[in-house]
Each structure stands twice: as C-alpha cells, then as structure tokens.
Amino acid sequence: MTDGYARVNSNVKMGIAQGVGTMRIRLIFTSGLLAVSACAPLNIYYKPGASVAVAQRQTTACKVDALAKVPVSTQIVREPPYYVPPRLQCNNEGQCVAIPGYFEPGEIYTVDRNLGLRKQVEVQCMADAGFAPVSIPPCPQGVAKAAPVRATATLPPLSEKSCVIRNRDGSFQIVNQG
Asked: What is the pTM of this model?
C-alpha cells in the first residue's frame, strides 16, 4: 500500500539516511530553543532571602497540590471545516482546467479546560508560602560577559535594574546592576 490521504504506510521504519536527517533537524531545533530561552525573561516564584532549592521544592509541592485539587480535563476539539471554492487554472497557452471546490476538514487538537484554574490554585499556594510570581529580564550581553559564572543560591532583593544570566547547566544568576 502507498501513503495516501489516510497515510497507510506511515508506520514503516525510515532508512538510516532519513533518520540522520531527522536527528539533525531535531538538534538544530533544540539548539534554537536553547538560544531563544537564553534571551527570554526568567519567570519564577520569588521571596527575598529564600534559597533557590526551597523555592523549587515549594513550587513542585504547589504544582502537585494544584493537580490533585484541579485535575486535568482534556477535551478534544475540532475547528469547523472550511470550503475552498472552485477555480480555473490556466497555462500560458490559454488552456484552462476547472478545479472543483472542496471542503478541508478542521484541525483537531486537545484542550485542558482546567489549566487556568489549576494555575490559579498553584499561585495561591505559593502566595500562602510567601512567594510571588516575578519575571526577571535577561542581562545585556556586556553584563553577562563581565559577570563571573556562578549560580544564585539565595534569592537576592530585586530592583528595577535586576537581570538574569542563564547558565548552560540550567541554573541562573540574578544580577543587580549598578
């Protein structure tokens, strides 16, 4: 059988060359995500003077608690189909072919209807523990290059000039400029 509309043979194993190409694409995509995440702000729960380890443990505990109180409610949703009208397709010699109209099925995707409420329960739990959500912008390139490489162990006081440096190992360093 051949791959058609229903993709009958889509489970056939790919050859070595295809696998290597796929791995290269994944590697490039992952590298791109890492580069973009280095430029993104750090969104964490913050409490001045708290250790990063305590903040991470409390965040995990609150996420688990929120999941227990507000479980995932996945629903399958389908966008409505749309109609592509008929059209004439002509070549340079003036010969035309009528292409009939057709319907395109709507995309199918899943939605967790409880995601927003679960996030609210998580934020409430963290607030009860004295943590507030903050977004710390990335440090300018000059600041990041001048700072010694280290990880923040205790959350420092924040100011308008606070910024973050993301380390390759997944840790971060909060810097208070000037």
From this structure: 0.65
